[in-house]
Design a protein that fits this description.
The structure holds 2 protein chains of 2 kinds. Chain A contains 9 helices and 4 strands; from the N terminus they run ααααββββααααα. Chain A is mainly alpha-helical. In chain A, a hairpin with a 2-residue loop joins strand 1 and strand 2. The longest helix of chain A has about 35 residues, at about 170-205. Chain A starts with 13 loop residues before the first helix and ends in a 7-residue tail after the last helix. By secondary structure, chain B is α/β, with parallel strands linked by helices. Chain B has an 8-stranded mixed sheet. A 7-stranded mixed sheet of chain B has the order 6-5-13-14-15-12-16, with helices on both faces. The chains are: A mainly alpha, B alpha/beta. Chains A and B meet through helix 5, helix 6 and helix 9 of A and helix 1, helix 9, helix 10, helix 12 and helix 13 of B.
Chain lengths: ~270, ~475
């Protein structure tokens, strides 16, 4: 019954209760040796989850029991204990939220720090490699900074304003790092599709590659293949494209709703 | 624009055919609006052909009666234009001292077109700071002229001023809560509106009253009851959540003429977080359409990002309000028309609504005045549809461009980084401010536009490439 005060464990069978009571007695004596701390410090850091609150009330209720003489409290009747627990839990959750809030204010998200981040921008002199700026490293550093700030948003400060602009990284560096690998991938796909289609059409119709290029239907197929490879890179892209198309005219339709009605209604309007 | 014309040609045909004559009309209308010519004759000549409903019967011995429900910018300017045009107007507002939670930014063209006195404007924002998810900060506003600014107003001050002008023009301003309206029995019959009128002493639920009017203008905001009475349909809306923070004087100095915009997934998945200066405090807020349940989390993230600049501040007020994302499916039914937020005229990307509310209120009122020949004839739905046509035609390009920008640049953190990078470009700043301050989508030098397009694509490609590398990395 006293075990019922611990939230997670189910009430044990009576055969074990004697054993458990003995355990609790020894536990209580152990607790008595510990210095008495203020209840709030026993609370877990965040009182957001219910488990946290209830386990804290359990520990406090435990202390409350301790205040009574260290007797076997088999008949520590659940109702008064439960009532006590309820009052305690209310007080505890209040204290808990205050305590947690106070602590949250003290524990601020860690600020972004990097030795190469100077005066609100990346110091390019520290990214030198073989006498030239290592633009890839600059990109990596900026990526890391943005990721950090996304997870730990910081206050924007007037003393150290951020003035970094991605356009200082030259265009060819972007091309080399981002465009070329993807271009290679897409061209590879297009080439594979093209080779297979050329072979397939040739086997079906006997028209060679050069003659295929002159045919309008084949040119259309080629166009569709290229557009497909460019636009659809993942399966989800098909849905995305459909949604995008819908989106472009959605706002227009919302504005014209009042006019649609005008067309359908048959009131006489002198126009 | 080509795709636009094909889309619209399949829709309501003649109404939204092409926008070729748009700029010409815009300039003319600006002149007319500023001059505030009373006679419909003058307007007719300049706008081309505008016919009153010749088949509508003349009203015998009385003027047209119109009820404007809602006393914000839309209602106030509608009531003023109606009263000036000789229509018997009643303006029903439920809370005369309402502090509507709002960014409070108005463009320069609003000050000119509505003749707003300059002491209405608390602050003139001439610098805006855009801050990307990785805290890259870009200052925009270098291209602004010495007398160009974004005006920051307190809504309670602006709304009260516009209502007062309406009252001076002859509208009767009633402190009451609109309950419902009854459809007319036959064609040409009156609408009966039910409302609770509150006594000037205040307190109590107010007296039940009814009134018979010929037309109703629904200007009662995002949760419009008038819209519900005509079955206007629903719209998607964003929740804008804002905290007003009083910060120490030294920190307030930084925000004297500066507003900030924070973008990032932590701050909002589909909108932005902001710090806007008000009269003696700042408003820190954020908004979202898709993740409304997490709005508090986004607000905490916004406060974290601005932490250094608002440290030591005390929150004096917390407020939230829905913002429509697009117009309601039905904006006009019979002789009831919706204007402002009730109709859903808030732009994407920037979430601007005050100017369009006031403009749509005025346009609707002007259409009623013309259609009724200064209040002497009954109007019908066709006259109200003319206002819709005019509004859609004039501002559709603005709305569409902002929608494209939102779709393109608020998609992901990579897109937002590219967006902030683009904002560093002077040409972009000039175009952005020109289109915001004057509400004209003016294409500039084609060579510059081409350079802009190339730079945009470049930024997006670079940001996406970095993003892909980020995904491969685990810290």
């Amino acid at each position: 019954m006293s075990m019922a005060l611990f939230s997670s464990s189910p009430p044990p069978p009576t055969t074990l209760s004697a054993l458990s009571l003995k355990h609790r007695l020894s536990f209580r004596t152990q607790l008595a040796l510990f210095p008495r701390k203020a209840p709030s410090l026993l609370l877990p850091r965040s009182t957001d989850n219910g488990a946290g609150v209830v386990s804290s009330t359990a520990t406090v209720a435990e202390e409350e029991e301790e205040k009574d003489k260290l007797e076997e409290k088999k008949e520590e009747t659940p109702p008064p204990a439960a009532a006590e627990k309820d009052v305690e839990s209310k007080q505890q959750s209040l204290l808990g939220s205050n305590g947690a809030a106070a602590r949250a204010e003290e524990v601020l998200p860690p600020k972004f720090k990097d030795p190469r981040w100077v005066g609100g921008t990346w110091d390019l002199k520290r990214f030198q490699k073989d006498g030239k700026t290592d633009w890839d490293a600059v990109v990596d550093a900026e990526v890391r900074r943005r990721k950090w700030l996304e997870e730990n948003p910081e206050a924007s400060s007037n003393d150290e304003p951020v003035i970094f602009d991605t356009s200082i990284i030259p265009w060819w560096s972007w091309v080399k790092r981002f465009h070329l690998p993807e271009a290679e991938l897409l061209n590879g796909r297009a080439a594979m599709i093209g080779f297979f289609m050329a072979y397939f059409v040739d086997s079906l119709t006997g028209i060679g590659l050069v003659d295929q290029m002159g045919n309008f239907f084949c040119k259309t197929l080629l166009f569709i293949a290229v557009a497909g490879v460019l636009l659809i890179r993942k399966n989800e892209d098909i849905d995305t494209l459909k949604k995008l198309l819908d989106e472009t005219t959605f706002y227009d339709r919302q504005w014209q709703a009042t006019w649609q009605e005008d067309k359908s209604s048959s009131d006489s309007k002198a126009k | 624009m080509a795709s636009l014309s094909t889309t619209t040609s399949t829709a309501a045909g003649e109404s939204l055919r092409s926008f070729a004559g748009l700029r010409r009309e815009t300039r003319i209308l600006r002149g007319v609006a500023a001059a505030d010519a009373p006679g419909s004759q003058l307007r007719r000549r300049q706008l081309g052909v505008v016919r009153a409903s010749r088949t509508s019967p003349r009203l015998n011995g009385r003027k047209l009666r119109v009820a404007v429900v809602g006393g914000g910018p839309a209602g106030g300017s509608a009531a003023e234009a109606l009263a000036k045009g000789g229509v018997e107007t009643m303006l029903i507002e439920r809370k005369l001292d309402n502090c509507k939670p709002c960014g409070g930014a108005i463009p320069l063209c609003m000050v000119e077109e509505f003749g707003l006195p300059l002491d209405l404007i608390d602050r003139r924002v001439t610098k805006m700071k855009m801050i990307s998810p990785s805290n890259v900060a870009v200052d925009i506003g270098r291209t602004l002229g010495p007398d160009e600014y974004i005006g920051m107003v307190r809504r309670e001050v602006l709304d009260a001023y516009l209502r007062e002008r309406a009252a001076e023009a002859g509208a009767s301003v009633i402190n009451g809560l609109f309950l419902r309206l009854e459809q007319p029995e036959g064609p040409g019959g009156p609408y009966r509106i039910h409302y609770n009128e509150f006594s000037p002493a205040g307190g109590g639920a107010g007296e039940r009253r009814t009134a018979e009017v010929d037309a109703v203008v629904g200007a009662d905001g995002a949760n419009s009851r008038v819209a519900k009475s005509i079955g206007a349909g629903e719209y998607e809306y964003a929740i804008a959540f804002q905290e007003r923070v009083r910060i120490p004087e030294t920190k307030m100095e930084y925000y004297k003429e500066r507003a900030e915009m924070y973008v990032g997934d932590d701050v909002s998945p589909d909108f932005y977080g902001w710090v806007f200066p008000k009269c003696d405090h700042v408003a820190v807020g954020t908004g979202t359409v898709t993740h409304k349940a997490d709005i508090k989390k986004f607000q905490a993230a916004t406060r974290l990002r601005a932490k250094d600049k608002i440290e030591g501040g005390t929150i004096i007020r917390v407020e939230a309000h829905p913002i429509p994302e697009h117009p309601r499916p039905r904006r006009v039914l019979g002789r009831v028309a919706l204007v402002g937020d009730a109709a859903g005229y808030v732009t994407k990307c920037s979430g601007e609504g005050i100017y369009f509310a006031a403009k749509s209120g005025r346009m609707c009122a002007e259409a009623i005045v013309e259609g009724s020949e200064n209040g002497s004839r009954m109007i019908d739905e066709g006259d109200l549809r003319k206002y819709l046509e005019k509004f859609d035609k004039m501002y559709w390009p603005t709305y569409k461009v902002l929608d494209v920008l939102q779709k393109l640049f608020y998609r992901s953190n990579a897109a937002r980084e590219a967006f902030v990078e683009m904002c560093a470009d002077e040409y972009v700043q000039k175009m952005t401010f020109d289109s915001y301050l004057y509400k004209k989508v003016v294409p500039g030098n084609p060579l510059d536009d081409l350079k802009l397009a190339v730079n945009t694509i470049g930024s997006l490609v670079r940001a996406t490439a970095l993003r892909r590398e980020m995904e491969k990395l685990t810290l």
